[in-house]
Amino acid sequence: MAYATVIDVATTLGRPITDPDEQAQILNWIAKTERIISARLGDLAALDRQILADVISEVVARRARNPDGKRNERIDDYSYTLDAAASAVELTLTADEWARLSQDGSTSGAYMPVLAPAPWLGGRDADATPTGGWA
Questions:
Q1: What is the pTM of this model?
Q2: What distance in Å separates the CA atoms of residue 29 and residue 25, rounded to the nearest whole number?
Q3: Sign of CA dihedral 9, 14, 16, 19
Q4: What is the mean pLDDT of residues 109-129?
Q5: Would you say residue 126 has pLDDT above 90?
Q6: Exposure winner among 87, 90, 107, 116, fewest CB in 10 A?
Q7: Is the predicted pLDDT of residue 115 greater than 90, yes or no?
């Protein structure tokens, strides 16, 4: 189930998206963005649907504005530079967008490795194999 639509992205861009090839690309980016969010936050149905649609359309619109990931451009005496988020080729959510999606407003949800002490670094059992897990 798509939480954002081509129309949402077009509204964010401030222009219509009428080309069938561009519409297909936008739908692909919407689906990828949903998978990125789902991988970090779990079931998308548990999130606020409107905030989710807003964030997805902003991420996809950012990619549509700069599909090649140009960081800066210069033509004669005119030049411009984009920040890292605006010039990212990947579909990337900003910390603010992650915070808007999370229930408590935090940017948590990233995995952090937790390892048991290794024996050669003063661990408990010299014969034990280091183990680990995810927090």
A1: 0.66
A2: 6
A3: negative
A4: 52
A5: no
A6: 90
A7: no
